Amino acid sequence: MEVDKGKGEAEETRKVAEADRDTVTLKSSDGKLFEVSKEAAARLSTVLAGMIAGGSIDDNGTDLKQIGSEALENVVDYCNKHANSIPSAALISSSISFNTAPFKEPEEWERKFVDRLSHDALFDLVEAANFLGMERLLDVTCHKISEMMKGKSPDQIREVFNIKNDYTKEELEEIRQELAWAFYDD
Amino acid sequence: MAAEEGPGNKRRRRREDVGDVPLGGGDGDPDLLSRLPDEILGSIITLLPTVDGARTQILSRRWRPLWHAAPLNLEAHFGTCSSHRVASKLSKLLKDHDSREFELSVYREIPPSVLRFSHALRVLHIRKHTDFSASATCMLNFPTLKHLTLADVKTSESALSGVLSRCPVLETLLLDNIRGVSHVRISSLTLRSFGVSDCGIFRLGSSLEEVMIVEAPLLERLTPRVPSNLLVIRVLHAPRLRAVGYLHDDIPRLQLGTLHFKIINYEEKRPDVNFIKFFILNARVLQSIQFVVRRDKCGAKWIARQHKKLQVNDRASQGAIFDFEADCSLGSSSIVHVKHIHDLAMDPFDRSLCRCQGDELN
């Protein structure tokens, strides 16, 4: 990808050289610009891959009106970290390799990546990943949310996530009976 | 250009149209979780253990229908004193649930009411089931079953081949210490990973003597697990087979036509050397052998010595390539976890990615 950088990459030919650039510039809803590896963006996001392939990438920053700067910064950070983590993830192999599709469970760095996020930032990131069609990032963030719910009672979960219980008393009783098996050891 | 309704994301439908409000600006609505689209909440429910997943229905009205539509990971342990109670609850649950994808682990007796749902199973792990005979299984169809484990199960050749023939999309199969069967023949157009073990000691019926892969065009991995007591393995037609192992010296005979080898934990021990040397001197269609060795070895001198020991200059396939590489992972266990037999995305021998706990060995 970076083979043909050319010698005279002068300012005026920037537009032409743009096609050979190995990063793309993304613009958040509040106008901040972020650079991300083109290869990683195309590999991790179906939406960005489509835009890159379709030539709808703007040199001055592709507008992502639905994504705020904090979420976009995390997206870009994730893409760049992902690009860097690949060689260490597998044995350096030569003639034969296995089908190395991403491991389903989050890797150590991915856990750390989502663990440091605030509650709000985590949910913004889920929505950004969903919008950009980033399956892997969605898996990692959903996994984090499921970890936050695991082993908790409905009351505890409501508290953690501010979920409003809008059932009537009767409805609640009915569901509880239906789900008796799930509350068996309570 | 702005990225508007971008294509290509199954889960991306939003529950509510938020218009031009930036995703990051979640003010006023503190329940960020319930704001996520159905598909994402469904994925989260699927990641939860069965009971936790079902309980999400009680959170709020928003959550009520989600569980019914989410694929489930269902774990049920039968064989305890309350098994009938669990079984009846479980069959009720299976009937209520809309999804056609279930993952079911059973111990001991499988209640017939549960097996009526065999058509909806995607994953089935059966352990210590006493009756997996032809009469008990002849009515079972598994049109959506992708992963099957039979461990410590008493069965018969006809029952086993009958069940396998009614799994038209089976991708991974593990036969751990099955009894009552001495010869297994595997023919599957969809199978990609196959694991087998046989302890040969505590046998109630006859123990497994021979496994023959007759026709498995997509088979990539063949994993004899410890122990594989005197188990003969023959592969007649598996053109995609890329990984075999771990091989142990309790396997007296392995016959296959594969072209590439990756030898993990090569340690220059005499049985290893003799075994590999045999391949090198006799295999006429060998393309490569890759040796994974401990990091502290693997120097040029050491490799040269191995070349000599293994007599690579006298190889039967002149074009064969021999590669040595250092193992980045720690420890040297030759155990393949059950999970890795069923997880096709993962290199079963790459322990650097392994997070299995000890109890997941079985």
TrEMBL record, chain A:
Q: Which Pfam families match?
A: Skp1 (PF01466), Skp1_POZ (PF03931)
SUPFAM superfamilies noted in UniProt: POZ domain, Skp1 dimerisation domain-like
Q: Does the keyword 4Fe-4S apply?
A: no
Pathway(s) of this molecule: Protein modification; protein ubiquitination
Looking at the record, which segments are called Disordered? 1-21
What are the residue boundaries of the SKP1 component POZ domain, all occurrences included?
23-84
InterPro entries found in the cross-reference section: SKP1 (IPR016897), SKP1-like (IPR001232), SKP1-like_dim_sf (IPR036296), SKP1/BTB/POZ_sf (IPR011333), Skp1_comp_dimer (IPR016072), Skp1_comp_POZ (IPR016073)
**Residue ranges constituting the SKP1 component dimerisation domain according to the UniProt record:** 136-182
Q: Which GO terms describe its biological process?
A: jasmonic acid mediated signaling pathway; protein ubiquitination; ubiquitin-dependent protein catabolic process
List UniProt keywords, sorted A-Z. Answer: Ubl conjugation pathway
Look up keyword Repressor and say if it applies: no
- Report the function annotation for this chain: Involved in ubiquitination and subsequent proteasomal degradation of target proteins. Together with CUL1, RBX1 and a F-box protein, it forms a SCF E3 ubiquitin ligase complex. The functional specificity of this complex depends on the type of F-box protein. In the SCF complex, it serves as an adapter that links the F-box protein to CUL1.
Question: What family classification does the UniProt entry report for this protein?
Answer: Belongs to the SKP1 family.
Looking up PANTHER family in the UniProt record yields: SKP1
State how it assembles.
Part of a SCF (SKP1-cullin-F-box) protein ligase complex.
Record protein name field? SKP1-like protein
Task: List the source organism.
Answer: Digitaria exilis
The lineage, from the top, is: Eukaryota, Viridiplantae, Streptophyta, Embryophyta, Tracheophyta
UniProtKB/TrEMBL annotation, chain B:
**Which residues does the UniProt record annotate as the domain F-box?**
30-66
Region (Disordered) location: 1-30
Question: PROSITE patterns from the entry?
Answer: FBOX
**Pfam families from the UniProt entry:** F-box, LRR_At5g56370
Q: Which InterPro entries match?
A: F-box-like_dom_sf, F-box_AtFBL13-like, F-box_dom, F-box_dom-containing, LRR_dom_sf, LRR_FXL15/At3g58940/PEG3-like
Out of the domains of life, which is the source? Answer: Eukaryota
- Entry-linked PANTHER family: OS12G0558366 PROTEIN, PTHR32141
Would you tell me the protein name for this molecule? F-box domain-containing protein
